[in-house]
Design goal:
With about 475 residues, the protein is an all-alpha fold. About 75% of the residues lie in helices and about 0% in strands. The protein has one domain: Amino acid/polyamine transporter I, CATH 1.20.1740. Helix 6 packs across helix 16. The protein is globular and about 55 Å long. The termini are far apart.
């Protein structure tokens, strides 16, 4: 129990002190008109109250990650909590704040704009197309998984639920952000938070020690290595590149830069808390890592979630928990498609205030998503964990270049960028989906390449200085 409570306390302190430090490094301009005010169009640029922006941003970035990733990552034991806490504070929170505030500061642009200005123009086009493909893939999976859950609960055909979800996706992708997302998502977020608190109360009422083996050693029954696997498995609860694709949606609704810390850094800390709860639930409920591992392997994360929630909250509570997970998935899926629309509209300069153009672009994007649900995307999805953290790595390097050019404390992004470079490279070099190189050799190669990136970073930034805090 004390490990969990200390972890929560660290998250809170991280938000109060380190979050404030990151905000100071970025240099907010409360007097500057935000995109929501300056470019208001009634579609994507719509001013919303900060509490709504916070809850919507939280729901957008969460997806299945802080639940599914934490449940699977907890197989390693309490050490998973360390990555969730320190990842959220020093990597995920910084990543989300910087990418979110870049969008607020620079006309609500998506991350490929920063890549274009700071890295390479042609690279930005490839980066944007890569983003759009990943977003459509995410949207398809985030439609298929909840459709399967709903089909099991209500004993209705899977194809029917897929049609319902994609119909909903089309509406939320085309309609102005305040019509559906702005009205209903805060309540969906409240449902998720309420269920999490209920499970936490039940956890306190279990009457036994939560961590049967209170150690930060590797407790994985199959002895899978913590580095790099755990840092790929637990993404959205600690650090996720997917978040950088979601932040521009709410960056176009924020009315003052001073609210950026609570909206972008704060939602990452809240997501870290959700991941902490689910990782702890997995360890505490089964009490034995071997049994836990067998259960996850046999039932999958969804089965574990259903088993834990039904046992702790009863049949009705279990259904509500599963529905909250469905909401997590669906509400991140629809904003994934919306973000894909925004990204492609920027690349090809398609006016999104025009309903017909917005309609056609959305229809094309969703058609690709529907196609993905009809083919076997299992192998492709296996690469998502790697591409997700690679995307975070690229965003952190980009932020580091900007901070260095502005003569700001670039170490806040450079250090996590270096770490994630080694994680991503080691994973793709050693894993079965990659090159299957010996793990030790893969680590050495990743260190060498990361050192090369570091050298390029200093070469690229040593002679360039910007005069204005307003210019990229």
């Amino acid at each position: 129990m004390y490990i969990f409570l200390c972890a929560v306390l660290l998250l809170v302190l991280g938000y109060i002190f380190y979050g404030k430090f990151v905000e100071k490094v970025f240099g907010i301009m409360p007097e500057k008109a935000t995109p929501a005010i300056k470019y208001s169009d009634g579609v994507d640029f719509v001013a919303l109250p900060v509490w709504k922006v916070f809850l919507i941003q939280f729901l957008n970035i969460a997806g299945l990650g802080p639940v599914f990733g934490a449940v699977l990552g907890a197989v390693y034991g309490p050490v998973a909590l360390l990555w969730i806490v320190f990842g959220s504070i020093f990597a995920g929170g910084v990543h989300d704040y910087m990418t979110g505030m870049f969008s607020v500061r620079f006309k609500g642009k998506t991350m490929d704009f920063m890549v274009k200005k700071l890295l390479h123009k042609k690279l930005s086009v490839l980066f944007a197309l890569f983003l759009a493909l990943i977003l459509v893939l995410v949207g398809a999976v985030f439609a298929l998984n909840p459709a399967k859950m709903l089909a099991d609960i209500f004993n209705m055909p899977l194809v029917l639920w897929c049609c319902i979800i994609f119909g909903y996706y089309f509406l939320t992708t085309v309609l102005p952000v305040d019509k559906v997302i702005g009205k209903f998502y805060p309540f969906f977020a409240a449902l998720l938070i309420g269920v999490t608190i209920a499970l936490l109360v039940c956890l306190f009422g279990m009457g036994r020690e939560w961590f049967a083996e209170p150690t930060f050693a590797n407790l994985h029954p199959a002895n899978k290595p913590i580095f790099p696997l755990m840092f790929i498995t637990i993404a959205c609860g600690a650090l996720s590149g997917f978040h950088s694709t979601q932040s521009p949606i709410m960056a176009r609704c924020l009315t003052n830069e001073k609210d950026g810390r609570v909206v972008f850094y704060g939602t990452m800390i809240l997501e870290g808390f959700i991941a902490l709860v689910w990782a702890t639930l997995g360890i505490a409920f089964y009490q034995n890592q071997g049994i836990y591992y067998e259960t996850v392997t046999k039932l999958g994360q969804g089965g574990v979630i259903g088993q834990i929630s039904t046992n702790l909250l009863g049949h009705i509570g279990g259904i509500l928990t599963i529905l909250s997970v469905v909401v997590l998935s669906v509400t991140s899926g629809d904003t994934a498609f919306r973000s894909a629309r925004l990204t492609l509209a920027e690349v090809f300069k398609i006016n999104q205030k025009n309903l017909l153009k917005r309609f056609v672009l959305s229809a094309c994007i969703l058609s690709v998503g529907i196609f993905f649900t009809m083919v076997d995307i299992t192998t492709l999805w296996m690469y998502f964990g790697w591409t997700n953290q690679t995307l975070a790595m690229i965003s952190l390097w980009t932020a580091s270049i900007w901070l260095k050019k502005k003569n700001k404390c670039y170490l806040i992004t450079l250090l996590p960028a270096l770490f994630m470079t080694m994680v991503s490279l080691t994973y793709i070099l050693s894993d079965k989906i990659g090159f299957r190189i010996d793990l030790f050799v893969a680590k050495i190669i990743s260190v060498v390449i990361a050192a090369g990136f570091l050298a390029l970073f200093f070469v690229k930034t040593k002679t360039t200085k910007n005069k204005s805090n307003d210019n990229v």
